[in-house]
Amino acid sequence: MTQNQLANAAGLSPRAIRELEAGRSNPALATMVAVVDSLGLTLDELVEVARSEPPQPDVTRAADLGDGVTPLVRTLQDPRMASRIVTPSDPAASIPHPANPVFYHVLKGSVSVDVDGETIKLRRGDSLHIDAGVEGAWRPDGGDSQVLVVEAVRTNGAASQD
């Protein structure tokens, strides 16, 4: 439910909902009843969620990175992007582009990226965005390479894996 939809359902302004979500308002009980009714909740359920443990940061330590794919976000519900660090163990590996839009950023080494028949060389610090449906793959240019891959997530919440 969007903020505007909730505002309409609860008979409140979109600004009032934004202020509530941001914790910048002290709403009246009648306002909270309207909100929980619109969400199909009870006040008890809302209080229980408010008293629950706050989400913890999702830290990935450099020491945890090894060969292969290391997902960077493991705790978000319904993420819109999937991010991971790819460290190819095979210097001759060719990794196809995912079907979704993707952003590559070279963290270490260099890679060659094939984009619709053209090869683009990326070095440490270089980035590249590729739209959905672009044919091709990327591969390390010998030695150790490490690439941050950020991919748009499909509508079902799934992203392809390198």
TrEMBL record:
The keyword Protease does not apply. CDD domains: cupin_XRE_C (cd02209), HTH_XRE (cd00093). One of its GO terms (cellular component) is cytosol. InterPro entries: Cro/C1-type_HTH, Cupin_2, Lambda_DNA-bd_dom_sf, RmlC-like_jellyroll, RmlC_Cupin_sf, TransReg_Diox_bact_type. One of its GO terms (molecular function) is DNA-binding transcription factor activity. It comes from the Bacteria. Keywords: DNA-binding. Residues 1-46 form the HTH cro/C1-type domain. Transmembrane segments: none annotated. Gene3D superfamilies: Jelly Rolls (2.60.120.10), lambda repressor-like DNA-binding domains (1.10.260.40). This is Helix-turn-helix domain-containing protein.
